[in-house]
Amino acid sequence: MANYPELSGKVAVITGAGRHKGLGEAMAKRLASEGCKVVITDIGHAAGDHMPESAIGTSDEMQQIVAEIKAAGGEASAFACNVLNAEEVQAAAKFAVDTYGSLDIWVNNAGVGYLMKPILDMDVSEWDTVLNVNLRGTFLGIKFAAEQMVKQGNGGKIINIGSQASKSAFAHASAYTTSKHGMNGITRVAAQELGEHKINVNQICPNHVTTGLGAWQNSHFSEVTGKGHDKYMQDMRDRIPLGRPGLQDDIAKACAFLCSEQASYITGECMNVSGGEEYH
């Protein structure tokens, strides 16, 4: 049952949505359940250096997610898009308009969260990969989504997916932390610049979420801290006032709220969805 009937018929693009058990998939399915027509994008093919297959949504996986949305009564399409490529990001916006008639919501979800190294151990090319995907990709999404929304003249919603690392610093995650802090800045600047066009720009900052990437990060940090998996996970739960890691749907529900008219006077916010672990 839809919680936000005003979202019915809205057209939403979600980047990095081609992996099962990922945040992008969860947000796409949540928005579709609210009546949005969704376009899920992901790279769809091998992406070169520092981009493992496990982090990339394949064309087959995107089509499976589309089929699942349709089977549940929603409308969805898939579009292969590398967020580093300006032409492809612009084409994704055009595809949404050509397919469904407008572009009302854009979710910048694609990101790199697996190159976790100390500064002294990180190659320059690895640094560039993280910063380019997480910041350049977000910039391109904002730019081309906003261009279409301004042309339409009906406003719109842009949601960026940050991290707890948008608010706090994490050793062994220099590039990731830097990129996610940078997303705070572009979110707030875009909100200031696009407000006159009735475009709301906000950011969601999750902490530990039970995605494939989240599982990899938990394994990685349990190793680098020397705690072991069980101790690391227990310490994590102890730090979170609500006593558990986040679920994909916790983030998806926050996304739907920020896309709704209930959030029409909220813009430029970097909203923690962390069970109380992050509070500034």
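the 2nd protein, sequnce then structure:
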Amino acid sequence: MTLVKLSLAAPLHLEDELVEQFLERPEWASGFTIFKAEGYSRHHESLSVAEQVRGRTQRMLVQIVLETDNAEALLEHLRQRFPKRDVAWWLEPVLDFGRLA
């Protein structure tokens, strides 16, 4: 079993919609963590004037540890059911994963 960490960065207003996509397929994403974040992108046409002045926008960052095959399936599901240009994603290898108790 090869584990990866899937990270998705998205605008705050998409949080509920994105979480719904994960909850539709719990076999792929049985657990996830959401962080509030700020981000910058050179693609800033959708930013408000205030965000452009600040130089960043409020975002959310979702992290999910899952098997590689499930990450690929979840990404394909999101591409089909949730195609959003302002959602960025990346995968990172996970060396080990467990619970402390």
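The CA atoms of residues 75 and 89 lie 9 Å apart. The mean pLDDT is 88.
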